[in-house]
Amino acid sequence: METTITINVLALIARVLSGASVRWVDCQPDTCQRVYFANHTSHLDAIVLWSTLPQDVRAKTRPVAAKEYWTAGPIRRYLSTKVSNAILIDRQEIKVHQSPVDLIIREIGQESSLIMFPEGGRSSGIEIGEFKSGLYYLCKKRPDLELIPVHIDNMNRILPRGQVLPVPLLSCITFGPPIWLETGEPKNDFLRRARQAVVQLKEA
Amino acid sequence: MDGRTLGLIGGVLVLLGVATMVVRVLRRRSDSGINPAILETFGLRVRAWWILFATLAAAVLWDKVATVILFGLISFWALREFITLTPTRPGDHRTLFWVFFLCAPLQFVLVGMDGPSMNTYGLYSILIPVYAFLFIPARIAFAGDPKRFLERTAKIQSGLLICVYCLSYAPALLTLRPADDDAPFNNAGLLLFFVVIVQLSDVLQYAWAQIPSRHVIVPTISPGRTWEGLLGGTASVALVGAVLWWATPFPFWLAAGMSIIIALMGAAGGLTMSAIKRDRGVKDYGTLVEGHGGVLDRVDSICFAAPVFFHFTRWLILTGAIGGAS
Question: N or C: which end of chain B has fewer CB within 10 A?
Fold first, then answer.
């Protein structure tokens, strides 16, 4: 890992470039173990969301990211392994022997928080896609985790799909009140409720 | 540094100090009978002016390049706010990249390079209205998305023209030279005079609009702007301008006339930006950034007044009305 100063400088650069303003709606920053789950519209999402967290929270928070993208090239590898300490998921070699949920649970232990994008891939930025079941299985094994819905606005215009060069517009990141997986809650109900929590922040 | 420039800066700082004290005192007295919302807005504005004038005065006192860089940063932020609130399509991404990272910086670099040894006026005065104007639609067409083509093109062109081209005329005031090179010409005073008059005309028009008999100019766009405000504000700003003639290259009657032009253009700028904001359904450009107004809300009147003030002054120099070896 890099030194704290380097990490703080990089987080500041990410914030200035993305022009991110941060709102906490009925929710406060906390270092307790949490899962931040957000809509996914740009490759910048994980880094910018991570950089908007307060320093002590940020130090304990690890993004979950796709291995093939975040290990391609020295800059991405540096950002994912040395700076944000991301948990990299191999999307090609999934499931059979190595369930990503087990890997995540092992990696976070009783300390780290997570940044997840339950839509799976990036959406267009207009509609928030259906959530994949990973979030549900994670909560089933760790129902104590606080789930914080996060809405990321305008990032798809800063760095859209298939583009390499960012345009420095302004974005807005909204954190919402925590939710939990209720005991016995069916998978689809929970995923719909989680998605709704993010959609609501869009209007908040 | 010219003593008159220092005098102007000192005067502005005293005025801001008084304004800050007035806000403090009125806030403490609940029985003052003044609408607390107006007081709150005024307080925020005073804070914004402190930041604007303190950095501007420091930059102007330092040197020309610092001033150009300061306005370049303001312009960059204003353009961010403008484009963020104007919807574009994914096909415009590459165009926007060049707008942000080539056109906008180049404009300010050219303004900064202008000096006695190199005359870049011929290029920076047409860079955006000619080259960028033609580049933007061509690059968008090249990206291959015809949907609402003209609308998207116009949005990006307007953003670049208003936030970058027009605003760059404010620091360009520092590059104006008298016909006779040896004649004294107070550029720093000219720029400070301009910014002081623009901001004063904003606040004086707002203040005059508070008097009871209200004839709103355009209720559908800006319910707060009244004819009383416009006329009263312009008249009082003309007085202030005439009193401040000593800081400028103008005789007092021209200083008053210029102040009237600045006030009218500033009002036009505010009204135009209100129309854009109303169309987008927002109150301030800064809504996305923080709770209070954005950078563009503070500089919209500067954007409209700067090019007109610059060209009028330039024309006066060319005709020999000012800047001659008197």
Answer: C
Buried (b) or exposed (e) across A45-73, using 16+ Cβ within 10 A? bbbbbbbbbeeebbbbbbbbbbbeebbee
Q: What ipTM, to 2 d.p.?
A: 0.83
| Domain ranges for chain B | 65-175
CA-nearest of B167, B169, B179, B174 to B192 is B174
Q: Quick one: which H or E segment has residue B189?
A: helix B187-208
B281 touches chain A (CB under 8 A): no
Number of structural domains in chain A:
1
CATH number of the domain encompassing residue A155: 3.40.1130.10
Nearest alpha carbon to residue B124 among B155, B180, B178, B166: B166
pTM of the model as a whole: 0.88
Among B84, B95, B289, B290, the residue to mutate for chain A (most A Cβ within 10 A): B84
> In degrees to the nearest 10, what's the CA dihedral of B39, B42, B44, B50?
-140
Residue A30 φ then ψ, to 5°: -155, 150
Mutate to test the interface with B, among A16, A169, A203 (most CBs of B within 10 A): A169
Give the residue among A171, A169, A138 at the shortest CA–CA distance from A153: A171
Count of H-run helices and E-run strands, chain B:
13, 2
What distance separates the 2 farthest-apart alpha carbons in chain A? 46
- Express each pLDDT in A39-98 by its tens digit: 998 888 988 999 999 989 998 999 988 888 888 888 888 888 888 888 888 877 665 667
Say yes or no: B190 contacts chain A, CB-CB below 8 A.
Answer: no
